[in-house]
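pinning this so it doesn't scroll away 📌
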Amino acid sequence: MFQEASLFPHLSVQDNLRYGLKRAPRLRTSGPTIAFDDVVELLGIGRLFDRPPSLLSGGERQRVAIGRALLSQPRLLLMDEPLSALDRASKDDILPYLERLHDALALPVLYVSHDLAEVERLADTLVLMAEGQVQTVGPLATVLADPRLPLAGQPQAAVVLEGNIEAYDSTYDLSSVAVDDITLLVPGALGAPGEKRRVRVLATDVSLAHEPPSRTSILNSFPARVISHEPGQDHGVTVLLGLGEDGTGARILARISRKSWDLLALAPGDRVVASLKSVALTHGRAGLTLTRSPSPA
């Protein structure tokens, strides 16, 4: 899969898909076969069957191209910046379908991208490269939460936490999402209890204190331990925290000023209270938007 869909212009959508079937190995000695109807349903392209590529939107063309690639029965799918030629609206349209593929197919995917928002939604393991050299390899959450890496120094540095939906409060339109031993309140009806979701927490949306806040509008405050810190090039300090009384829970980042760091007199191992001013959904199923509105703060 490349940046351009490269569909055959003289073939309909259905015939482009069937070309992928023709390219499939005749004998599969191992692994499941990806069925034509399953691909069509997962990518939502059945209504496009009779159209030529010229009458498709950019997102539709990419979905058909992904379907054609899947129907060739690959053992590994390489996707080289498949959304880079699309505008933001088209990306938002196609990402839920990629999430559905991620959830439904037991197929390794090597996804190349410069867009961290795509990576946060789709990746399980992250290989971080710079100037052709591998800087680190590890689980997505671990790499994003490493304050020594350049991702943590970016203005939009964030961590991704994976949890399960526990309940939905229709009175306040809030879903409870369990992440390790804590429960996050996230705006919106995110799905049925037990379903997995990823939530994104910006480092700049995490504040620290020695005592729990009282009479505050912030809904998500948890005990945590300082694990390490990394001074930035400006006035900021990036702090790595482990949630929970003993700090063994999920890792998050906090971006605070150097003055705040000094005033709090923090050091590794210190107990703090981390208040999350905003929590957004970053991984959902088809039909959900890219992010939810921030938590009330």
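📌 and the second one:
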Amino acid sequence: MKKIKKSVDIKTSPEVIWGAIINPSKYQLWTSVFQEGSYFEGGWQKGDHIKFLMADEQGHTMGLYSEIAESDHLKYISIKHLGLVKDDSVDYTSEEARKWTPSFENYYLEKINDDHTRFTIEVDVDDEEFTDMSDVWDLGLVKLKEVCEKNSGAFTEITFEALIEAPLHQVWEYWTSPEHIIKWNFASEDWHCPEAVNHLFKGGRFVYTMAAKDGSMSFGFSGTYTDLVEDSYIINQLDDGRMMKVLFQKVGEAQTKVIETFDAEDINTIDLQKEGWQSILNNFKKVVEV
């Protein structure tokens, strides 16, 4: 195999580029130059399995079955391609599969200054495919730069707030401590948050389990902290690339305003998302003020 190595300087932050890689909608925008309708299924955390997929002319699902070998938020992603996907099967052993796998596809993000980030790719390719893949990666990096700098597919921001009758530091403690998070982090009484893991530092991870009390469904709400100042603000990037910011403002000796802003997802309506998140914030207020 040969290795393709290319870089592009993008006038944006590492968070925007990271979001363009891991968010399903934004991913489709820049990978369309490789194959129209390209998409992925899976996660971007270390150890996650992920499929990079498309449909061929006959309607078959084709692509690569891979694993995230390494993931360092806003810095580095290493993807190990393991096999070829065809519909519901994965081919690890055929001659065609051995042309493409096992191989690595690595992404590097380097913040150059406050306005620019350098994005570098290193991709293993079959010798015979080197020229064609090198050319298409040139197009891919141009498209990624365009998507990031024009903020294509921009998320809609939603903001909501609550005035909490409690001192600033108490509010911060209830917001960030797992023992308190599990008491308020749900929108209705038929749901709960049975587990909360929170590593509260820049680059730290949080994972909250949200579940219906009857056991019918559950999901993980998770992300990585990109910046925070105690008793002031928290900024994090969710695992689908969306950003979220929480401000804590001292209003009086025993009053604190919490202002939450986040990028809306594209599955539920904006109104439904506003209602759900405001309900969680109202529940937080109730728990703190008891």
